[in-house]
Amino acid sequence: MKKLLASTALALTLALPVAAQDYTPDPNAKAGGTITVTYKDDVATLDPAIGYDWQNWSMIKSLFDGLMDYVPGTTTLRPGLAESYEISEDGLTYTFKLRAGVKFNNGREMTAEDVKYSLDRVTNPETQSPGAGFFGSIAGFENAGAGGLSGVEVVDPLTVKITLSRPDATFLHVMALNFASVVPKEAVDAAAGDFGKQPVGTGAFKLAEWTLGQRLVFEKNADYWREGVPYLDGVVFEVGQEPVVALLRLQNGEVDVPGDGIPPAKFVEVMGDPAQAERVVVGGQLHTGYITLNVTTPPFDKVEVRKAVNMAINKERITQIINGRAVPATQPLPPSMPGYTGDYAGYAYDVEGAKALLAEAGLADGFETDLYVMNTDPNPRIAQAIQQDLAAIGITANIQSLAQANVIEAGGAGTAPMVWSGGMAWIADFPDPSNFYGPILGCAGAGEGGWNWSKFCDEALDAMAVQADSLSDPAQAEARLKMWSDVYMGVMEQAPWVPVFNEERYTMKSERMGGDDALYVDPVSIPVNYDYVFVK
């Protein structure tokens, strides 16, 4: 995290445009032009309170803004619609000063009332926002509803004060999430429940056309408050395009970015052709692919068994199934995430050691279990490799290859002894170690329907996690990350997961596309930061 404040009580005041201080514009950038992006599936919604998938994430980010934002292509926080902010000495009160003159693309100026309305809306149970829980530290969250959040107060038209019920070191990251985007009440009301198809925001682009099942057209917001961007006049998203067809169209100059990336079946061909490989962009992701071991289902209730499974998996071989587009994982956090424990080697691949642990657990003859997997390539092939590795230590794993929704249902219900997370694996919502714990390893996520499919719950580690996130003073940042490292080392000691690999993202861009490669694999605006790319 960029050190925005010298102390928790000091206000950050930026007199110059933010972009001039935290992002150096590309000297070769040119304004104008429209690009074509393809996707296989249509977009479900462009409502920032509802949208929660990697496909619509960057679209929503280009239509809306929040109080906070990130430096393009990085995980470094910067102010967004907030020009400056102050944090009280106890870390419980955030006072945001808003930028003057920011307009929604319906022409009305944004005010602090819009900020309060937007936060009240996303946390109102009637909205059914999948991101409501991120705002749990705001005072009054437990009683959020028609009355709104008691912790969000409009001080004046350009000042909003947010009071927390507990210190939360992740709060500024939460204010940068799509879910915290500022929306105008009159536009939501006018849409009559269809705001996701009729979005109105303050972003770099606005929606000009949406033909369901065919295409979406974004056009440049001429009144955008950030000076000099976006460079593009527009973006056309063509949906219903098979990834292989999209690749062929890119080769023919008809497509600028294949939104679904390089098709696995074409990866070797693309990388083996110098002309195509030159257009490939590679970037790390805040991602971990893992196998969950349900600690409430025998024999996975025995830590020796869970450790044996960790030692049985040949992670190097599995990464080759996806053409080496990943690095073997040692722990839940990916290497690019703050709090990652660099000197931890994880469980070594050791077949004989795994057999010895099974014998120690009274299972020298092995056992039979089920491995659930999403039924799209390459996940069934990865499941087969896992099945073979387990067979080598006497475990018979019957593969249950199902649709994504069915795997998620079984994992949430706790009826799946093992789940390979591929196709559903965790990509962080924001670049902070806490986001890899609460939803998928903490006690809160272990309930019915939760994403903690191992059903692992350690109250001592939960308490340590809460303590870590109470260290909101920037001076405590190092201590906080050390505490998070200890949390994840505690998880690995109990082995409810087999972390398998940290996947890298491979995509392509046409020859006419310009802008830093990091913008095409943006770790926050997944997958592309449309505000800053340009046509050469």
TrEMBL record:
Its main location: periplasm. It comes from the Bacteria. Residues 1-20 form the signal peptide. It is found in: Periplasm. It holds the Pfam family SBP_bac_5. InterPro entries: Peptide/Ni-bd, SBP_5, SBP_5_dom. Part of the ABC transporter complex GsiABCD involved in glutathione import. Binds glutathione. Belongs to the bacterial solute-binding protein 5 family. This is Glutathione-binding protein GsiB.
